[in-house]
Design brief:
There is one protein chain. Helix 8 (about 155-160) crosses helix 9. The protein starts with a helix and ends in a 17-residue tail after the last helix. It has two domains: about 1-65, no CATH class; about 80-255, Rossmann fold, CATH 3.40.50. It is elongated. The protein has helices at about 1-15, 20-35, 40-65, 85-90, 95-100, 115-125, 135-150, 155-160, 180-190, 210, 215-225, 250-255, 260-265, and strands spanning about 105, 130-135, 165-170, 195-200, 230-235. Strands 2-3-4-1-5 form a five-stranded parallel β-sheet. About 50% of the residues lie in helices and about 10% in strands. It binds adenosine-5'-diphosphate and magnesium ion. It comes from Nitrospirillum amazonense.
């Protein structure tokens, strides 16, 4: 009996099954007491090992994909964003848009949950075994510009074409450096109809000329990025500022397409309201 047990332990070490080895004694005791049948005991051991492996795989893939702040759909309070169709977001979490190489645009003012939702969809994709890479537009362009300077742009573009889902966060927050739009276009063009993307932005598509400092590039980008696209416009207010809504002037609070923070900074001057120029597709 004990010789067999030693042999099982050696097998588990040889097979690199640390979790099964750890739970072996406990499972055997349960089997001896009759709480588990032999089959259930084997199943429990293998199940424990598989769960550990899966957790390690997900952890490593999240790190590789730069999904460093884990956000979940379960942790998203849909009641706070009534304009958002919960079922539509949950349908997106089925990930068919990734397999169809579509582009999902999440639009809305700062704090309305764009990064949260983009990350949560990325986490779902990783759990389902898809490859994901998360970046901000500024970091993405900086990395492409660096690669271009170093003569490794082709390799960088190839690297960024590998993940099945590329998440590009924060389009429109920072002005794009000269030549940046062109580099982003090269990537978008390389991924076009080959890989899915999630893009988040606080600016409407009509403002992309300003964002990229180049209307020709912006038009070419939108041409690719609005073909096979899903547009989700979040109309609601900032979740970050929800407890301080009373500090935000009433005229700002009622306008979903103005950024409260900006308005607070520009005290005394009426906030600039831009027309909503996005049009939902699908
Ligand atoms: P955005 O990217 O649109 O500026 P974020 O997704 O970063 O906004 O959201 C800001 C913070 O508020 C994050 O910590 C996020 O997790 C949280 N948050 C935003 N919306 C919700 C929500 N509806 N339910 C729960 N947390 C939310
Ligand atoms: Mg964000």
């Amino acid at each position: 009996m004990s010789a067999t047990l030693d042999s099982i332990r050696r097998h588990l070490v040889g097979l690199k099954m640390p979790r099964a080895l750890e739970t072996l004694d406990h499972v055997l005791r349960q089997a001896e007491r009759g709480t588990l049948t032999t089959l259930e005991a084997i199943d429990a051991l293998l199940g424990e090992e598989l769960a550990l492996r899966e957790a390690c795989r997900v952890k490593a893939a999240l790190q590789m994909g730069r999904l460093l702040t884990v956000k979940t759909l379960a942790g998203f309070d849909f009641a706070f964003q009534p304009s958002l169709d919960r079922d539509r977001i949950l349908a997106l979490a089925q990930l068919d848009f990734i397999d169809r190489h579509e582009v999902l645009h999440l639009l809305g003012q700062p704090g309305c949950g764009k990064t949260h939702l983009a990350t949560a969809l990325g986490v779902e994709a990783v759990k389902a075994g898809r490859t994901v890479y998360f970046t901000t537009l500024a970091d993405l362009i900086a990395s492409l510009a660096k690669a271009e300077r170093e003569g490794t742009l082709r390799e960088r573009l190839r690297f960024l074409c590998r993940p099945q889902l590329l998440i590009v966060d924060e389009i429109g927050y920072l002005p794009v450096v000269p030549g940046g739009g062109n580099l982003f276009f090269q990537l978008v063009n390389a991924r076009y109809e080959k890989g899915a993307m999630v893009l988040t932005s606080n600016r409407g598509f009509a403002e992309w000329g300003d964002v990229f400092g180049d209307t020709v590039v912006a038009t070419a980008l939108l041409d690719r990025l609005l073909h096979h696209a899903i547009v989700v416009q979040i109309e609601g207010a900032s979740y970050r500022l929800r407890q301080h809504a009373d500090l935000i002037p009433e005229n700002v609070r009622r306008r979903p397409d103005t950024a409260p923070l900006q308005a607070i900074r520009k005290r005394g001057r009426p906030p600039k309201v831009r027309p909503t120029d996005t049009h939902p597709i699908n």
